[in-house]
């Protein structure tokens, strides 16, 4: 048995592999309901714990609403017409709660935790510590991140970019959890810099589906709009369960069924909400 505490104290280089979660995995029979009271309770608990009651309610009521903001949890579109007051799912609310949390990671946190210490923490633990309050820099050979000013941070970034022989030597990666507004400004900056090297998480998340769609229908992206669901006579959902993968899709499927559409669901996994 490896003495984890002793190993941490003697090791000077952080591990490249994130540690496994310490909680035990429990296998239970699949439930019968994908939403309902349990989902509402879990959503409220997460939102209140991360954002507070008042701030949490105000934030969620703006989620996927006209004049509000898009959910960072998925790319399911919002209807142009009438929208529900709760135009989000449990996972989307949890995504927003993580982004809008009141928890803060200050420079004091990084003085307390070395790079080796942080590498021994799970991704879940790291994410639950909160939002950064300052630019942080890890200097070559240092064991701790240190606070730098915004001016110094921008100067460091510009120095690195301007030292390149050509703008195409840079790659600007973005996260799918970035807001539309931030992503728009980001791509303007990159194109002004002189390159279109703008990969994002979609390149990884949807590379397989994009390749398959390109070979089968000639286009690597979706070819329908949300309004097409209302006019469809048959909808085939293959290889995924809307109840867990895309809960907001259930509203569109329900409306389609009410319009007389035939729904066919093919999924070999006995998941929640399939019956």
Explain what the structure shows.
- This protein is mostly helical and 275 residues long.
- It folds into four domains: 37-99, no CATH class; 104-163, no CATH class; 170-215, no CATH class; 224-266, no CATH class.
- The protein has helices spanning 4-10, 37-51, 53-61, 90-99, 107-112, 115-119, 123-127, 150-162, 180-193, 201-205, 207-216, 228-231, 242-245, 249-258, and strands spanning 104-105, 131-132, 136-137, 146-147, 234-238, 262-266.
- The strands form three sheets. A two-stranded parallel sheet has the order 1-2. Strands 3-4 form a two-stranded antiparallel sheet. Strands 5-6 form a two-stranded parallel ribbon.
- A hairpin with an 8-residue loop joins strand 3 (136-137) and strand 4 (146-147).
- Helix 2 (37-51) crosses helix 3 and helix 2 (37-51) runs parallel beside helix 4 (90-99).
- The longest helix has 15 residues, at 37-51.
What's the helix and strand layout?
Elements: H1 4-10, H2 37-51, H3 53-61, H4 90-99, E1 104-105, H5 107-112, H6 115-119, H7 123-127, E2 131-132, E3 136-137, E4 146-147, H8 150-162, H9 180-193, H10 201-205, H11 207-216, H12 228-231, E5 234-238, H13 242-245, H14 249-258, E6 262-266
Parallel strand pairs: 1-2, 5-6
Antiparallel strand pairs: 3-4
Helix pairs in contact: 2-3, 2-4
């Amino acid at each position: 048995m490896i003495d984890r505490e002793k190993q941490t104290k003697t090791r000077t280089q952080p591990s490249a592999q994130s540690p496994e979660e310490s909680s035990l995995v429990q296998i239970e029979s699949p439930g019968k309901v994908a939403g309902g009271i349990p989902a509402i309770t879990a959503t409220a608990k997460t939102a209140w714990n991360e954002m507070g009651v008042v701030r949490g309610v105000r934030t969620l009521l703006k989620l996927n609403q006209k004049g509000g903001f898009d959910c960072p949890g998925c790319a399911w579109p919002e209807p142009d017409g009438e929208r529900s007051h709760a135009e989000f799912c449990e996972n989307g609310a949890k995504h927003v709660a993580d982004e809008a949390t009141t928890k803060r990671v200050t420079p004091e946190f990084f003085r307390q935790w070395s790079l080796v210490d942080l590498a021994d923490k799970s991704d879940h633990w790291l994410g639950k510590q909160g939002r950064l309050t300052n630019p942080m820099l890890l200097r070559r050979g240092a064991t701790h991140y240190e606070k730098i000013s915004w001016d110094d941070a921008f100067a460091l970034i510009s120095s690195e970019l301007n030292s390149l022989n050509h703008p195409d030597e840079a790659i600007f990666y973005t996260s799918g959890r970035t807001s539309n507004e931030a992503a728009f400004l980001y791509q303007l900056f990159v194109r002004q810099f002189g390159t279109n090297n703008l990969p994002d998480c979609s390149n990884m998340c949807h590379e397989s589906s994009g390749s398959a769609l390109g070979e089968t229908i000639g286009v690597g992206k979706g070819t329908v709009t949300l309004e097409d669901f209302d006019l469809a006579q048959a909808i085939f959902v293959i290889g995924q369960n809307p109840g867990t993968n895309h809960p907001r899709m259930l509203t569109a499927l329900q409306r389609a069924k009410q319009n007389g559409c035939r729904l066919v669901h093919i999924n070999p996994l006995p998941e929640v909400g399939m019956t």
